[in-house]
Amino acid sequence: MVVTSLSKMTELQKKTAFIRNICILAHVDHGKTTLADCLISSNGIISSRLAGKLRYLDSREDEQIRGITMKSSAITLLFGKDDQEYLINLIDSPGHVDFSSEVSTAVRLCDGCIIVVDAVEGVCPQTHAVLRQAWLENIRPVLVINKIDRLIMELKFTPQEAYSHLKNILEQVNAITATLFTSKVLEERAEKDMETQLTSDSAHRDQVYDWSAGLEYTDDSHLYFSPDQGNVVFASAIDGWGFGIEHFAKLYSQKIGIKPSVLLKTLWGDYYLNTKAKKIMKSDQSKGKKPLFVQLVLDNIWSLYEAVMKRDKEKIDKIVSSLGVKIGTRESRHTDPKVQLNAICSQWLPVSQAVLSMVCSKLPSPLDISAERVEKLMSVGAKAFDSLPQETQDLKDAFMKCSSEETAPVIVFVSKMFAVDAKTLPQNKPRPLSQEVIAQRRELVRQRHAEKLAATQGQELVQQGAGENPPDQTIKAGGTKGDDQPPASQMETKALATVKQEAENKEAFVAFARVFSGVAKKGQKLFVLGPKYDPAESLHKLPLGCSAADDLLPVPHLACCTLEGLYLLMGRELEQLEEVPSGNVLGIGGLQEFVLKSATLSSSPACPPFTPLNFEATPIVRVAVEPKHPSEMPQLVKGMKLLNQADPCVQVLIQETGEHVLITAGEVHLQRCLDDLRERFARVDISVSKPIIPFRETITRPPKVDMVNEEIGKQQKVAVIHQSKEEQTKIPEGVQVDSDGLVTMLTANKYATLSVRAVPLPEEVTRLLEENCDLIRTMEQFVSSLNEGRKTQEMNQKVLDQIQEFKQKLEQNLQGRKWRNAVNCIWAFGPRKCGPNILLNRVEGYERSVWQCLDKIMKEGDLYRDFDNSIVSGFQLATLSGPMCEEPLMGVCFSVENWDMSRFVEQMSVNRQDLEEGKTAGEMPVMEEATPVLTGRDSKMTSESKEIEESSQQSFKLPGKRKGEAMLADCYGPFSGQLIATMKEACRYAMQVKSQRLMAAMYTCEIMATAEVLGRVYAVLSKREGRVLQEEMKEGTDMFIIKAVLPVAESFGFADEIRKRTSGLASPQLVFSHWEVISDDPFWVPTTEEEYLHFGEKADSENQARKYMNAVRKRKGLYVDEKIVEHAEKQRTLSRNK
Predict the structure, then answer these.
(1) Those residues with Cβ within 8 angstroms of residue 190's Cβ, 6 or more apart along the chain or in another chain
(2) What is the mean pLDDT of residues 384-390?
(3) Cα separations (Å) of 754 from 491, 942, 982?
(4) Do 518 and 560 form a contact (C-beta atoms < 8 A)?
(5) How high is the pLDDT of residue 728?
(6) Secondary structure E strands in 260-388
(7) Nearest Cα residue to 676 out of 503, 502, 421, 422
(8) Residue 101: is it exposed, middle or buried by C-beta count within 10 angstroms (0-12/13-18/19+)?
């Protein structure tokens, strides 16, 4: 056992080659924290008897109660191997899907990871997710197959069955890795093909196409998990044992007399031992033979379990003596056989030894960081590494060397901020007293005591001397003095107590970070690089060789901070450090004012901000919070800011309605955030609204059959009901609607006419727009800077290729007569200029599209272009809040068919003539005398007329826009504003004349359940509008895996209900998946005889879409069409009962 000491650790921090930064990743309840306990106990931090029960890294109270990890926490361990000591920075991460953002923060700081898989449950959804995250961050994984004791105790497998089952799990994990690897190779191949297409001449048309995918030439053997490669450990963390096959290879090489290298290759696989010939042979040569792994490894473990569970004392003594382990009397006499088992196994096959030894030999040190990973970290957004400034590219060498020299630039990445109680910081802890301090304090107390005695004796003498004074006067005098003193001292005490309580309640924020280059020192000044910081734009503004300590001009997204405290993370404890060399994980104090969630710190302004973290979970669950006492609102606002900083995934915002909204990843995450708000950050009682469910609005093609499956248009309509339906979709006067759904509207001052049509987008196009949101945003930024005439950086070729590819995919999916040439006519995307809706420009004689970045031609301004922005703004507003319940639109295409501004042009020329005439008349002296005093508006008109006279007689260029608009600023406001309002209303009416539908957010739900509770699971799913997609039995177990989709609106309390109904035998995992159209029409009323007979006049059966729509409208304070009983009377019978 290694006992940790701070001095030893600080020494080892300087030896970068012997540092390992690792995290433990797995699905929920697969045994990560138990495994971490076993590794921590090897350092003497906790007792080995408590490993697995204490869950040391779960330091929060709710983590201990729920039994799941909710935040990633780090600890530093020492491990000795081959006379060399290693420093291991271990990070334990959560497995629950709601906290997958914590996994992202942990993975970014590590070079390797331990993937833990439950031997019974096998590969689960989060196992997929964590393997993908490790792959995306370019970190190397090793595998621990945990809970093998469950195969013996619960499933009662024979060693042969267990071997087949373990082999199956290994194949499943390797299949995921193979999928990730193949997709990467194919992407690289596609990029190469694109490059060759660009470089090759059109002359080489007779080239033979190479159909090979490039997979044959790439070596991927090192990526897969295989026990003979030494990157797999079989373990039971709760029983304290684990092994890699190299342990048994060494053991049996001496007994059997076969080389360890041969045994290492053959211990896993279909090989068996021919004892007579002392040879290892392939198993197909002789059937019915046990593979080596079963014969030499599993049989021994199974027999040990059998002996201990049956309490076979003779056999146990025999095993103990042959293994050479010692068991204490307490363990051997304990009533629980597991205690005895743990005592034997943890000495025979200690899991910490097996896992840490694998980590040290198979996982890379910070020095082995790959060039690919460095380039990926430094290339923000769509920028390629080659397009970065030369000073930035030079920093790559500093990353690769991971140098701790004084000259090396300091680069630190902060992956998250976490809150700790200020009392737990090392500088605030009570320190142990030395002998000298104790002696000084003792002397001080003696002196005070002596002074007190002297004072009391002096007082007695005075009283005796003043004996002639009346006794009541003395008492009175003494009394007044005594009465005067206490109030002041009480006030001071109260004030001190308040200050002390505030200091105790204060939360301090520590940054969870890693040094990638240089040495971080306490008190050092560094630049904080915001996510939008661009070294290419900022370097020329800063002097050469400047540092954070200099007084510099303000640069956007660049701030300076001081590292106030550096801490070694030791689970629940923090140890103070003076400096931390590169390659180490650390905590940094004093960054609360500079870093919100994550940031890059650097001593060089040439360093780019690192790429943002990949979050698997999308925050989807919203609630509004308010304090129970309105006076406590400031505390709540402050508390929400702190919560936003302390949690990587939570989002905090104030809506237009003034509500303070909290957006979280799921129900468990929401509960944790609310508990933190009440108990840690705001410390006030809060009221929480029902979850705010997000919806989307869309349109569909008109249905061909009605609600009773009759063809529409062939039945007799019920006149009264049909009339009531038409009233609902009434379009106001002045808005023309043709039979094809084209809506024509005039602006308020009748100067411009707009015709808009709404068309549903194909599903593939909507999905494509959602996936390419970032690319659309990049295009939009480029086009807007081009239109505003700002100096823009050239887009690199890679981004242009991506845009070209995106355009081609849109063209492939938008085919048919009505979509002819649609892609080239795309005017804008919305809402927020990058959403899943499209605005098409079908106006004759006006060319405008979003693909300006490809042709790079800046069109000359004309009348339409001047007001172009107003149309786009109206479209953005319309897509941000739809007509049904003010929710954003999705999958809708608005086509502007006509935009007539001839009346506007006429009015402009009339105004100009009037102004010119007025000016000529104003020059005549007679008229001048007779002119009355001008009003404010007239004077404005005159000044404008001068401007117009002075300006050149160009028709309607950009400078003329403001003047023309000012001339027409009539009672309806500026003309551009009228265009925005008209466009917005036209889009809304164009939607209302089509078949409107609501879209609900959907979770994919994966449930593992035993056969006996399947019926109950289905009952809960159907009650909550769930839909089962797939049901399959997990091989080798009695567990079923059910895959279903469930609306987010129906998911609250779902996990609890499933657990209650199945007595805890089924547990669901909910992950946000997609948006799905609700098939019901929210405005449907019976219109035919059959519908009337089937559903009744009021359509009594509940319409799900209308229920959701009305709930949202009520919450937003919009009008809801529902009948409310105002005067209810109890029914009276005519004759009394006798």
Answers:
(1) none
(2) 78
(3) 73, 32, 8
(4) no
(5) 46
(6) 271-274, 279-282
(7) 421
(8) buried
> What is the spatial distance between Cα 578 and Cα 601, in angstroms, rounded to a whole number?
18
Beta carbons of 52 and 38 less than 8 angstroms apart? yes
What is the CB-side half-sphere exposure of residue 917 using CA atoms within 13 A? 6
The larger pLDDT score, comparing residue 923 to residue 388, is at 388
The span from the CA of 177 to the CA of 123, in Å, is 12
Nearest to 867 by CA among 998, 766, 758, 960: 960
| Contact (Cβ atoms closer than 8 angstroms) between residue 289 and residue 333 | no
Q: Which helix (H) or strand (E) element contains residue 805?
A: helix 797-813
pLDDT tens digits for 223-262?
889 998 889 999 999 999 999 998 888 888 877 778 888 8
Residues 6+ positions from 167 with CB-CB distance below 8 Å: none
> What b/e sequence results for 548-565 when a residue is b if at least 16 CB atoms lie within 10 Å of its CB, and e otherwise?
beeebeeeeebbebebeb
Residues 980, 870: contact at Cβ < 8 Å? Answer: yes
What is the identity of the amino acid at 887?
E
Q: Which two tokens stand for residue 807?
A: 């355009």
- Amino acid of residue 767: R
Looking at the chain, how many residues does it have?
1138
pLDDT in tens, 685-722: 999 999 988 899 999 988 766 655 556 655 545 444 44
Task: Quickly tell me which residue has 């190397």 as its tokens.
Answer: 140
CB burial of residue 268 (10 Å; 0-12, 13-18, 19+)? buried
CA-angle at 625, arms to 622 and 629, nearest 5°: 175
In degrees and rounded to multiples of 5, residue 844 shows phi and psi of -70, 135
80: phi then psi, degrees, rounded to nearest 5: -100, 130
How far apart are the C-alpha atoms of 672 and 62, rounded to whole Å? 8
657 DSSP assignment: T
pLDDT digits (tens, 9 = 90+) for 111-125: 999 999 999 988 988
Strand partners, 416: 512
On average, the pLDDT of the chain sits at: 81
d(CA 743, CA 252): 85
Query: Do the beta carbons of residue 79 and residue 2 sit within 8 Å?
Result: yes
Rounded Cα–Cα distance for residues 51 and 31 (Å)? 12
Q: Are 385 and 798 in contact (CB under 8 A)?
A: no
On whether the CB atoms of residues 801 and 837 are closer than 8 A, the answer is no
Q: Contact, 757 vs 895, CB < 8 A?
A: yes
Distance (Å, rounded) from C-alpha 554 to C-alpha 563?
20
**pLDDT attached to residue 976:** 84
> Does 869 score more than 80 pLDDT?
yes
In single-letter form, the type of residue at position 844 comes to E
Which whole-number Å values give the CA distances from 524 to 550, 560, 576, 580, 756, in the listed order? 12, 10, 15, 12, 60
Which pLDDT score, from 0 to 100, does residue 902 have? 81
Q: Give the list of residues 6+ apart from residue 284 with CB closer than 8 angstroms, or none.
A: 270
**DSSP one-letter code for 577:** E
Distance CA(74)–CA(86), nearest Å, equals 16
DSSP H or E segment with residue 301: helix 299-309
What token pair was written down for 289? Answer: 């033979």
Tell me the chain's radius of gyration from C-alpha atoms.
38
pLDDT of amino acid 876? 93
Report residue 209 as tokens: 């196409």
What's the CA dihedral at 65, 68, 73, 76 to 10 degrees?
Answer: 100
Query: What is each CA distance from 840 to 600, 758, 830, in whole angstroms?
Result: 41, 10, 12
Q: Label the pairing between strands 585-589 and 73-81.
A: unpaired
Select from 623, 697, 689 the least CA-distant residue to 1105.
697
- pTM of the entire predicted model: 0.81
Contacts of 392 (CB under 8 A, 6+ apart): 378, 535, 536, 606, 607, 608
Across 806-867, where does the E strand assignment appear?
Answer: 826-830, 837-841
